[in-house]
TrEMBL record:
This is Succinate dehydrogenase/fumarate reductase iron-sulfur subunit. Pfam families: Fer2_3, Fer4_7. InterPro entries: 2Fe-2S_ferredoxin-like_sf, 2Fe-2S_ferredoxin-type, 2Fe2S_fd_BS, 4Fe4S_Fe-S-bd, 4Fe4S_Fe_S_CS, Beta-grasp_dom_sf, Helical_ferredxn, SDH/FRD_Iron-Sulfur. It comes from the Bacteria. PROSITE patterns: 2FE2S_FER_1, 2FE2S_FER_2, 4FE4S_FER_1, 4FE4S_FER_2.
Length: 249
């Protein structure tokens, strides 16, 4: 395939950015989107130009590093990560716009790379347990009801890619934060910090400058791991419970 690419180029966080147009030829439908960008960068390097900077790591849909808005959609037209998006989703002659995540809490570092350390700070605020665990426990030593285990596993699938923030018209991080809160709060190991966890993580989320949630639902639609919108409802219930409990003390 021969494709026309319109790629966001920005030298650094302080520089003005703009879309640059490139043509790439000989693109196989079996290539991943990142392999297509690799092909573009090889051509740019051969021409003595600066390659396009973009985030990537495992390229297996696990790490959450890849983070591109493709033709206006977080991760592109398929419900998957950018690294698992293949060029068969496009046609010969297509024009493809490639941009970084758009959110004030995710400042651009260079080109398509954004700083997502705000997510790290939200997790540091409460995404952990303090109970000493020692060595590995015996299997079934702490019984967990299957519905609770299933709910915890569902939320543990969040890879922190940030697609929810990029897709949200308000730039909210509620789906990410709720996944981390619900993952631990539903398990017995997370019970000691149940109240402080949700209060601290929501407070840190607000401090990072993410927008407010209006339940537009775009976050759940864009999430490559299928974290449900009801996750936000669950966190809101936890937050109200923790707030009322704190007020009674």
């Amino acid at each position: 395939m021969k494709l026309n690419l319109r790629v966001w180029r920005q030298k650094n966080a302080d520089a003005e950015g703009a879309m640059s147009t490139y043509e790439v030829d000989g693109i196989s439908p079996e290539m991943s989107f990142l392999e297509m960008l690799d092909t573009l960068n090889e051509e740019l390097i051969l021409r003595g130009e600066d390659p396009v900077a973009f985030d990537h790591d495992c390229r297996e849909g696990i790490c959450g590093a890849c983070s591109l808005v493709i033709n206006g959609d977080a991760h592109g037209p398929e419900r998957t990560t950018t690294c698992q998006l293949h060029m068969r989703s496009f046609k010969d002659g297509d024009t493809i716009d490639v941009e970084p995540w758009r959110a004030s809490a995710f400042p651009v570092v260079k080109d398509l790379v954004v700083d997502r350390s705000a997510f790290d700070r939200i997790i540091q605020a409460g995404g952990y347990i303090t109970a000493p665990t020692g060595s590995a426990p015996e299997a079934h030593a702490t019984p967990v009801p299957k519905p609770d285990a299933d709910l915890a596993f569902e939320h543990a699938e969040c890879i922190g890619c940030g697609a929810c923030v990029a897709a949200c018209p308000n730039g909210a991080a509620m789906l990410f934060t709720s996944a981390k809160v619900n993952h631990l709060n539903v398990l017995p190991q997370g019970a000691p910090e149940r109240e402080t966890r949700v209060l601290d993580m929501v407070a840190q989320m607000d401090e990072e400058g993410f927008g407010g949630c209006t339940l537009a639902g775009e976050c759940a639609t864009a999430c490559p791991k299928g974290i449900p919108l009801t996750s936000i409802t669950g966190m809101n219930k936890e937050w109200l419970r923790a707030t009322r409990k704190a007020a009674k003390r």
